[in-house]
Amino acid sequence: xxxxxxxxxLIKSLTVVFIMLLSLSPVKAQDLNxxxxxxxxxxxxxxxxxxxxxxxxxxxxxxxAYEYTMNDGKVTDVIVTGVNSDMDRKRLEVILFDxxxxxxxxxxxxxxxxxxxxxxxxxxxxxxxxEDVLSNLKFPADAKDWGIEGTIFVKFVVDExxxxxxxxxxSNIDTSVEYYLEDLENQAVSAIKATSGNWEPAEVEGVDVSxxxxxxxxxxxxxxxxLPAIIR
Length: 232
Description:
This protein is an alpha+beta fold. It has helices at about 1-30, 35-60, 85-105, 130-135, 140-145, 180-195, and strands at about 65-70, 75-80, 115, 125, 150-160, 165-170, 200, 200-205, 205-220, 225. Mean pLDDT is about 80; it is low at about 1-35.
């Protein structure tokens, strides 16, 4: 009996250890994969919040420009020009600083489908990007009549071949007339997709990669569609 009891206790102990391993393994896998990817996507969402804040402030400052001061790859200062208001300029400096710091956390990390949010060398357009995009945009008269204006952010992927396989939108336009808003969003996406194939892809450690780009398109009653400053 002592011999049998000893083996029964051993089996019980091994069973407990096995159950513990089963319970721990999925958690570790989740921590390493799902949570990490989710964290990256949350940081990218934070980037979009910063971009919305920047464009909300700078919409009345057509001469807005900025420059980062970097040290060992980290931002140490932001210089904003073309903004007359001291308060707005200081707000922009803080937001731009936070945006760049956030991008550094995303540097050279890809999402679940291999798209990089922040890279060593950004994707660059081969041509006049503003001219080519704006030539494909118009402000529908019906949308004007319904008072629909604002900025649409087109989020698109430039792949390693310079093509645009995917594009979607985020908008700061609040309206109950979804049909006309959808029209503006579709126009913005189509205009961006028309540039597909004319991009130099982004690079990470000297290798061409797919990257996420964000381009704002503003529809304003007083003027034709415009492309505000592209913030990186």
